[in-house]
């Protein structure tokens, strides 16, 4: 199974999908879909993720 960059960033912060999704204000299922690249990341969510994962927004591309 391929680990996407988004999942790797979450894991580097020591967060479970449940913890990250709660902090981002989305469902765990939605986060799972984003991490598996089956859903598109919105600009608003990209900003939230960059803050949560302590990276630049451009690092999420």
Descriptive overview:
- The model has no long low-confidence stretch (mean pLDDT 93).
- The chain has 61 residues and is an all-alpha fold.
- It contains 4 helices and no strands.
- It starts with a helix and ends in an 8-residue tail after the last helix.
- The protein has a single domain (5-54), classed as 434 Repressor (Amino-terminal Domain).
End-to-end gap: 20 Å
What coarse outline follows from CA principal-axis ratios?
globular
Q: Class, according to the CATH hierarchy?
A: Mainly Alpha
Count of β-strands: 0
The tally of helices reads: 4
In CATH terms, what is the fold-level topology?
A: 434 Repressor (Amino-terminal Domain)
Based on CA atoms alone, the radius of gyration comes out at 10 Å
Please give the share of residues in helix. 55-70%
Total domains: 1
Poorly predicted ranges: none
What class, by secondary structure content? mainly alpha
Q: Going by CATH, what is the homologous superfamily?
A: lambda repressor-like DNA-binding domains
Q: Sketch the topology as an H/E string, one letter per element.
A: HHHH
Average pLDDT across residues? 93
Strand content: under 5%
Biggest sheet architecture: none
Identify the CATH architecture: Orthogonal Bundle
Layout of helices and strands, plus pairs?
Blueprint: H1 5-12, H2 17-24, H3 28-35, H4 43-53
Helix pairs in contact: 2-3
């Amino acid at each position: 199974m391929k680990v996407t960059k988004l999942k790797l960033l979450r894991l580097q912060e020591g967060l479970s999908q449940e913890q990250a999704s709660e902090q981002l204000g989305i469902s765990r299922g939605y986060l799972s879909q984003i991490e598996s690249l089956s859903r598109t990341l919105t600009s608003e969510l990209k900003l939230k993720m960059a803050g949560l994962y302590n990276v630049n927004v451009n690092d999420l591309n």
